[in-house]
Specification:
This protein is α+β, with helices and mostly antiparallel strands. Helix content is 44%, strand content 18%. A three-stranded antiparallel sheet has the order 1-2-3. The model has no long low-confidence stretch (mean pLDDT 93). Bound molecules: FE2/S2 (inorganic) cluster (2 copies). The site of one FE2/S2 (inorganic) cluster (FES) has 12 residues, from helix 2 and helix 5. Its cofactor is [2Fe-2S] cluster.
């Protein structure tokens, strides 16, 4: 556990004013829900995406039960993926998130949670689309 004062200003900004916190209807056929946990610390992140018929992510919502870096990573990730196609979004690397937020090495796994959550939400969306065929 790092004290809040040790966070980089960019992390602090997302932590104090997280973007896109919320919950979508997981039964909506255009919504994909990713729920992932970090084995290293037990933190949990839920990320949801809303995808239009062209495969573009038109909205994103998250809720993270975890440290400041995990909250900041999910907040930033939720902004980053809006407007991207799902195939672009699934290539987002945690290192890009960590770099943007200037996360120190011990906090890399927090950004990994965001990468995993994006992938998990996309997988869920694709699974639902297949089931609907
Ligand atoms: Fe305490 Fe992540 S920093 S659980
Ligand atoms: Fe585990 Fe940040 S300390 S997600």
């Amino acid at each position: 556990q790092t004290s809040k004062a040790n966070y980089h200003p960019k992390v602090h900004d997302h932590y104090e004013k997280p973007r896109n916190v919320g919950l979508m209807d997981k039964n909506d056929p255009n919504v994909g829900t990713g729920l992932v946990g970090a084995p290293a610390c037990g933190d949990v992140m839920r990320l949801q995406i809303k995808v239009d018929d062209n495969g573009t992510i038109i909205d994103a919502k998250f809720k993270t039960f975890g440290c400041g870096s995990a909250i900041a990573s999910s907040s930033y990730a939720s902004e980053l993926i809006k407007g991207l196609g799902i195939d672009e979004a699934k290539n987002i690397k945690n290192t890009a998130i960590a770099k943007e937020l200037c996360l120190p090495p011990v906090k890399l796994h927090c950004s990994m949670l965001a990468e995993d959550a994006i992938k998990s939400a996309i997988e869920d969306y694709k699974r639902k689309k297949l089931l609907a065929l």
